[in-house]
Write a structure and sequence with these properties.
mainly beta; four-stranded antiparallel beta sheet; 10 strands; globular
Length: 129
């Protein structure tokens, strides 16, 4: 299923996964879940093939990776471009990709702006427009 089902739904909550390692600044987000007015959780992340994955799935639990740090999963504050659109309705979604390669970007449009999700060398990047 494509992400078109988001159109007309209100963004209620954003949850993200961050890699924490010692005293270093958190890396990520690794994953983002957009919880909408229908209580659907849309998971946005990068796949092992470096393509952008967009699927319906509930946020996972955080986990410890021993000497490699831990992954923390929690609602986001102002550290996500999606935070400024909480409570807004999704007006449009668009995807970019390369035939035979897969999805490389997803843009979610709200009344007050857009958020672009894309993969760069296997890392998830979020930006406001």
């Amino acid at each position: 299923m494509g992400p078109g089902y988001l159109v007309g739904r209100r963004l209620e909550q954003v949850v993200a996964a961050w890699h924490l390692y010692g005293a270093e600044a958190p890396f990520g987000p690794l994953d983002v879940w957009l919880i909408d007015s229908e209580t659907t959780a849309t998971h946005v992340t990068t796949g092992s093939d470096w393509c952008l994955t967009v699927e319906v799935s509930a946020p996972c639990e955080g986990y410890d990776m021993g000497e490699w740090g831990r992954v923390e999963v929690a609602p986001v504050g102002s550290e996500s471009p999606f935070a400024e659109h909480l409570g807004e309705t999704v007006r449009a979604v668009s995807e970019e990709g390369v035939p035979g390669t897969g999805r490389l970007a997803l843009e979610v449009t709200f009344e007050s702006g857009r958020v672009r999700c894309e993969t760069w060398s296997g890392d998830l990047h979020l930006s406001s427009k």
